[in-house]
Batch of 3 targets.
Target 1
Amino acid sequence: MSLDRYRAKRNFEATPEPAPVGGTGTAARGALFCIQRHAARRLHYDLRLEINGALASWAVPQGPSLDPAVKRLAVKVEDHPLSYAKFEGTIPEGNYGAGSVVLWDLGTWEPFGDVSIEKQLERGDLKFTLHGQKLDGMFGLIRMKPGKSKNEEWLLIKKKDGKESSDWRVEDYPQSVLTQDPFPEVIQPMLAQRVKEPPVSGDWMLEIKWDGVRALAHIKDGKYVIRSRKGEDITKQYPELRDFAKHIKAKTAVLDGEIVVPDEEGRPRFELIQPRIMARGEHAIARMAEQAPARYVAFDLLYKDGRDLRTSPLRTRKKDLGSIVAPYEMLQVSENFDVSGKELLKAAQAQGLEGIMAKRAESRYVSTRSDDWRKVKTGNDDDFLICGYTIDKREHFGALVLGENKEEKLNYVGNVGTGFDEKTVAALFRMMQPLCQEKSPFTPTPKIPHEVMWVRPQLLCAVRYLERTSAGRLRAPVYMGLREEDQVFTHPDKVLFPAEGITKRELLEYYDAVSQWLLPHLRDRPLSMLRYPDGIIKEGFFQKNLTQKLPDWFRRENIAGNLTPIGGAKPDLLYLTNMGCIDQNPWMSRWPNLDEPDFVLIDLDAKDATFAKIIEAALLVKDLLDKIGLVGYPKTTGGDGMHVYIPVEPGYTFEHTKTFSELIARILAQKHPDTFTTPRAVAARQTGRVYFDWVQNGKGKTISAPYVVRPKKGAPVATPLEWSEVKSGLDPHQFHLRNAVARFQRVGDLFAPVLGSKQGLEKALGRLQKMVVG
């Protein structure tokens, strides 16, 4: 193999690419392979296979696919030296292949079949197996008949080997295999949807539903921390797990699983672990650990040795989990069963287990409730709100009064008076005292043949029962224990997006998960309250003034006579979401400096134009900003438009930013009349153009914040972008409530520079004025 073409195309004094050293080898078979993500004039992926001491290379414009039905074009390019297999960097402008190169995958490869590599290449049909960090399986390269192209054109095809997938997308894995991902100290767990029947079709992984306490185990440098579903450190509650980290074959790892206490027959029982949740004091905890030891059942692996695995398919994560866990008495991996969901559910019922889990084999890990994970319970047990307690001869209380949110109201379902021991009764009584109130939370108040002390419905408990009466009352209920919940909201099962079946609970869970990225962009900003109390099926309305009674902790300020919410705190965000505020629309300035905006807004709106036109307009904006020395940050609006934020230093007024935005709008409209239209009057705007709304830069004007869900069909999310993503094929609806969290976990806060970078406008304004004069 020759490297002459490689040398001829490059000036090694101007490019960081490695120069060949010596000649190529003579090895008959390949060993090393790599794939580089190359953001040159057009983004593509370079597949390189070591053959006879050099890297035979193919440029794959759309990247590899794991779907055997998808054939990817692969253009044969010049051979590269072996040293190129570890190359990452930026090739400067003016050089061949200018752009960034990321080592996307790295590993070994081998041909399969009895025919030599040389013969397979000669006949144009190379079959091989990749063993990489991202790709692991059988592929084929097939040469096409010569056409108009000067280069050989091949097809890269995934072979059927049990590792194929139609859901896998190369763009979901942009990260380098050389760059370590930061260790996540806290992760919001992925939650399952409850269904009545297990799925009967599709690629699902089935396992037992463990009746215990959800817990994520964080292992780092031989030490471990166990965190609850709410992120609290509960390590000290389970001292019997102290040797946990010794049985994990990884320096750093995050496992998801369940802490369980089995009964005498080995079946996990929630009522057995309940005392451990409420236990206080080192002596009491140690005694319980000795009498009824808990164990950790791991069912997912989220991080391992510098790699965040949450964007990898569950099938891969579960395989990696099995490879690093050395089971012992206190640690096991949840087994997957190769039977139908109906068979496993029947077996779980026979064994007296809580239920089963069905998880899509290709699902990514998202910190919200997802239909990719489904739970099916074997018996009648549910979670209910504690709405009061009866007073009788027993000390503290006689029974708990239960309710559930259904059909947009709190319904009474009965009382539970069994399942408690003396310690549990005393502990529950103490927890309920701060919640006591005179008024019943039910309308109408149910008739209960005992004196009742009502409590605010904020505590959630698990109850097992025989059946329900026709009136919805529980028969033979038994208290199982308290559930872990941050707080209880009104009507969490109300459907806000009918077409998708998205409930208020899902929306709350979404905002809880994205709050780490969203809240910095809301901090100290006044918010307009656009409310959808009945979901998007009805038109929303703006509430200008906070008139209802608010909690003391809720932040609000009097602005021009209106009591206005001020963003930045997580409880406030969730409180507004509970009120029906699906998205958050902040001002462009912060309290108390409301006259000073933080950025210039470029607001691009479609006027009967396609989104491709919006992309064209956004790239023209970037080109202009590059020329005048400013940096802008793009995001989708969640609708059919796009925003570009230009952060500015303090001291500018809205008149400054509005004038600056208007000047950009007029220059672009003059130079590109087929792309832009600027008239304020709707009737005067040219159709098929992009409307540049420069007037939006004004005091009191609001825009959809980054990371918010928009009240539109599909629950789209206003999503920050890298400029490399603003290209043909971008669809603003591809980012939505049910997949956006996984993206944000992968790419982080792309809008963080909007808050951190401050730019002056004077020099840029001078350059713009010269353009006008020119």
Target 2
Amino acid sequence: MPNTIYRLLQSKYLNQWEIFGPATRLPLHSAQRTMAAAASLTSMPRKLFVTTALPYANSSFHIGHIMEYIQADIWVRFLRMQGHKVHFVCADDTHGAPIMLKAEAEGITPEELVARVAEEHKRDWPRFYIGFDNWHSTHSEENTELSCDIYGKLKANDLITTKTIEQFFDPVKGMFLPDRYIKGECPKCHAKDQYGDACEVCSAVYAATDLINPYSTITGAKPVLKKSEHFFFRLSDPRCVEFLKAWTQDGKLQPEVANKVIEWLGDEGKPDSKGLGDWDISRDAPYFGIEIPDAPGKYFYVWLDAPVGYLASLKNYLGKIKGGDFDKFIADNKVEQYHFIGKDIVYFHTLFWPAMLKFSGYKVPDNVFVHGFVNLSGEKMSKSRGTGISPQTYLAQGLNPEWLRYYLAAKLNAKVEDIDLNPDDFMARVNSDLVGKYVNIASRAAGFITKRFNGKLSDEPLTAGRELFHKMRGSLAASIPESDDQVPSILFEVRNFAGQLAQDYEAREFGKAIRAIMFLADRINQYIDEQKPWEIAKEAGQDAALHWFCTLYLELFRILTIYLKPVLPKVAEDVEIFLGIKPLDWEDAAVALKPGQVIQPYKHLMTRIDPKQIEALLAPKEEPAPAAPAAKPLSAKATADAAAGPDFTLVPPEPPRPPVLLPVADTISIEDFGKIDLRIARIVDAELVADADKLLKLTLDIGVDQRTVFAGIRAAYTPKDLVGRLTIMVANLAPRKMRFGESQGMILAAGDGTSIYLLAPDSGAVPGMRIK
């Protein structure tokens, strides 16, 4: 048989082995059965409450955040296409010592810090077409109310106790130190400068009090052990243990997650199995968080109130919509509750969180979906080392957000596996799959419809293929197979996938769904190649055949768009406008375009990735500035003096090193120097630059105009320190395009590579004065 390509497809899609070729047609009843199965998923609408892990409100989103949000968003969009009601919410995680200390270092309040980061977060997630219904904050009335309510109910249930513990205290800062703010010598391998909870050299885990020669990373002081009364959630209570063993081992959790949790729960048959311990849920002032209602000066540990932020965001959202009733909704047994999280926070979400909810009378999660990390070309990404891809840089390079959505979907499955973002594979998949296969189907058909038929689809119903085929048989024998069963079979074949694809999406097997959809795209393009519409167009008297075939191609493209809509929501919206149809739902795969319908002129739905965009994305980043240097250990006397009060001066442990003085550069002429236009400039504005640890963005007034300059002085100055100051700038330096914007000059500073000193003129100088 001419132009026949047989394809063998396994039974997971068809419940049998089928050989596809131009002469093979799926029985109509088979397609009807599959579509009925797909429709049955929508017959009983569900109510769901879905969340993603809360990002910490001290920095921009990283690629791991965006991957998780895209994964959850695809699942939510699919469920909504099935007719289910989904509330999809998130919030900023705003409390804890790191927020407090970072705000202090920037000279602002914690509230100002979290408000600034919140605005950035709210700007970035919609740019990746992530459809949260609500974005809230744990620093809110709802979260305070709910956290206190849960605490009160746990206490009434005899699951809160107090214990006096010894903890390291910084006598200079006057605060108890979290483990990550303590460094010292590892008690196992004796490596220096290791954190207070684990050694990065030998991977030993220990208590901060086990460190040798510990010191505070905040002040350098030697911490002292100080007693404090702390509140504990009695996670070791037999009631909690019994509940958690039942809840985590009933088959709902991913197998690798359930296996890990059972290790933490302990094995009664093993004498060395420790089981669960009680959970410390309080911190002492100073602390940025929610004060415990019956314990002034004590605050909820951030990991108690952070997951409550899920409920707080839901409550805030329901309070804003008509008919929203949080108490009624959360008490409804039919509501399903799901959390998407990374594998690094499984402990909190599978032990503390469900136990807190269970014994405070709230609904426990129906499931927790855990994913792995995102690597770049097989290597772990690191913001501190400047290796990786930031979402902000991705967008700044003009890369289409749906390219990333598609690529991540093609990699994701229901397992707890790390996924690899390989730039070459990324470009190849997008250009081949989305442009070369999927979009290509529409572009091959739409031109004929627009030019030859005034944008109107065929009046012949797509089910009339058999009769139309008989009319065409004589003159098109070379381009159309002999069997009259072929014309409608492709339509049944593509529709037949709806049921299995629905199951793949529901099970979060997105990679499997993408592979099947691209199989269909290949199949349709093969079919078009076999029919050769460009040759039919040359045949006299075959306009009806050409019209009908091109209408069929657009119908097949429409069905593929339904299958891809959870992944490509913006493209799907553009297709709906192009075809002049209502928003597509999953059940629309079973119906066809209306005969004679008018479509819009075709516009490119997606472009190919330009290799230059990938090169720019992966270009070496500016060398990241080291984090504010951790304080070195202070002497015992210096620690005591600092703790005594402001009348004492800290004594550094060693004298400061003299600056490194470089030799004088080569001689230049007075004419060379005269080419440099040095001007007095006033700093009228200064701001941090996202994803650039060394830079500040300065707006400079030089009298005649204002300039924007990016300066690598962030390690020495905060924006608040600079506004209003006079400095010196090179005004005639050629502008330099950076990935953050254009730098229109240079300010002058002195330094030896470790210290930075901004140059400033004497009093009386005004902006615009030239320096000679």
Target 3
Amino acid sequence: MAITSSFESIVITNVTEYLSCVWMELTLAIFAALSYFVLSRRAATSKASRKLLSMHSPKEGLQDSDPEPTLAQMATKALRQGNIKDAVAFVRQLAGTQAGRVPANIAFRVLAAIARTAKFEDALAEVLVLKGKIHSGPLEAATADALKCGNLGACYRLDQAATALSIAKSQQTFQTLATAYATDAAAMRQLVHEAPTPFSKAFAELVLGAQAVVNDPTLAAEVLDKLNHVDAAALKRRSSSQSLASRSTSASADGSEKGSSNRSSPRNSSEGDSALRTDSLLETCKAAAAANPKIPQEIAMRANDIRSCGRNGDLAGALKVFERLDQQKAETTLVINSIMDACLACKDLQKAFDYFSQAKSKQLADVVSYNTMIKGYLANGQESVARQILSELSQTEMTATRPSYHGLLNARVMAGDLRGAWKLIADMQLADLSPNAITCAILLKAKSPSLSEVSKVLALIDAMQEPMDEVLFLSVVDACIRTKNTDKLARQMDRFMRQGNAAGLSAPTYGMMIKAFGQARDIDKVWSLWKQMNGCKVVPTSVTLGCMVEALVANGYTADAWQLVCKLQAEQSTRPLVNTIIYSSILKGFASARETAKVMTVYQEMKSQKISPNRITYNTIMNAFAQSGQMQRVPALLDDMTNAEPAVKPDIVTYSTMVKGFCNSGNVDQALRVVKDMKVKGGCTPDEVIYNSLLGGCAKEHRCDDALQLLQDMRECGIAPSNYTLSMLVKLMGRARRINQAFTILEDISNEHNLQINIQVYTCLIQGCFNCGQAGRALEVHKKIIAEGVSPDAMTYSVLIRGCLQAGMVDKAADLARCACGCGPMEKCRGDPPGLPAGCLDEVVAALGGPGDENARKLTKELEDFQKKVSQKHGGADRKW
């Protein structure tokens, strides 16, 4: 029993101990499970946070202890493996976290990958979903990398990808592509058409350097035309004797002797003279092109041939080149655009549209295709169709460019529809295309812009991010001159100068500014610009000097202009600037001031410097004689004209000036002889101006018969008399007391030439009636004037009232005074009454008996009351009768 009890107690103890261990292990297991669950959840949260952080971080190389890659890493891996489709899917997700933009480093890898792939078209189709999501920086880096590796084929593909993906090209990208296309005239020409104008000097030098290789002389002219004046002049001088490329070769050869340090660190093309490195880059491109058989040189060459045929008007030749290409080569965007361009150059719009339709159906049309058709329809006057093409472009996946709008904008501006032009500007801005220098220059081309329109364009210029170039500044100067807005011109000029352009301004630009401030009579600014031009070492042209001289002469500073010309004439370097036109301007200034002695001094100096006077010069001197009454000098001047080499023949202005001078000096007989010689020897027919001068001379000398003979000569020559002619005739007949003949002449001429007699002629007729003692007839003329609807002026009523007073018709004079002021019993003219000249009413009051006379007081009161009514009608403005 004792043993059994002992055994049971042992068993119970062991079981209890075993159960305790099991419970302990179970408790520990549960605790461990709970701990694992909590810790695993925390780790998962931390990993998700790190993943989200990697998605939002643009930095590469960020190492994480977690093995799961980020979207950027997965996209990079897919690109490295050539799996474009998966890479684009990852990039789209990544762009969604980057405000719709592809990070620069990933965009660079995408562009580099599609440029290297053998299936470029398929790869590009996959990447089209990223259109508008890649900015210009990655494209610039990718093209530079491709050129550095000598892969010109990649440069071509990157250019095409930029168009398809709507990636803006930076200036550096254009320069890189210009280097890559050095041996491809067609691609180079397309690049020139696409590059924004005015071209940078670096880009232009690269294109001109390549032009020597591709042998396309028309390209040079186009590039120089799209440069600003200063750079174009510099490049023209540089390329006058040999091509730019050969000059660069010489420069490189000279530089090689100075050590390798210069070669190892070439200057940046945007900061220095890129021509110094053009030749070495061209040699690199040639070698790369020879080593890379994949470049589509044949397609590029055939496209260039097609365009060349089109420019030469040979559409048949262009079509023959196009038809010889096999289907694969013909169905490329470059070739299709080339044949469209050729069709438009040969004015076959329908055929160009057919090719355009084919390109659209085969998805080969790009923005250039649409822009080409817009340009074609505009050139054909079909602006509405061009608008439809632009609308169609906006509905595609492609993005319209500024050239898409500029053609239509120019059409609206040339049509004078500025409202339509500004509507296009609004459409551009809605399409996220901000106006640039070309846009503003087009707007400033308007024929008659208002001050408000010019102000709106200047506001656009102020909002431009890029600095104003000289071409746009010239347009601003011209518009401000036309609208006489020198205040805004001064502000724009200050802005232009602050951009550091003072040293780069050309002489023509200074000339236009001098002209503008000369017209504004700001002589201080004129001299300031002239001194600034000299300080910047800008050599003036004859046109610039002409603007300066004209500004001084027009403002009465002819002596200063003459002093300036003498100074320039004394310098060997500036002597060629002084020409006949400049001398003529100075002669005109002294002639207007009637300083005949100085006129002759300038003329003699002109002859001593062997500067040949022209007809304008002689006419200016002749006018000086006519104004100063020194007609005795005329024979000697006519001899000079005859003996000049070559001889200068008098024209109608010369004869007119002589006739006027002789008539003013009281020598009508000599004036008549001039007209006779003019008909016989000069071979000229007198015009109305000459006949009016003769009639004026006859009127001064009371030569009625000669005047009537001149009127008969005018009829025989078919010259219709004007109201000015009639006024002199009527005045002459009135003074000669042949008033009946004056009435007859007026009736005959008005019926013969359907001429409406004006108030000045009628006023002369009224004065003639009073001179002949026919006051009643003068009043009848007044009634006739009112009946015909001709409005008498204050001078008409002055003649009527004073004539009546001289005739003793005081009451009639008072009635006429009332009539002139719009009241009284007599018939009145239409519209506002003209009133009376100062002193005329006082004469009527004095004739009535003075201010104390009852009738005089009554007349004065009536006119004062009426004056108050008129004053109230015109808003309180005080009018003098």
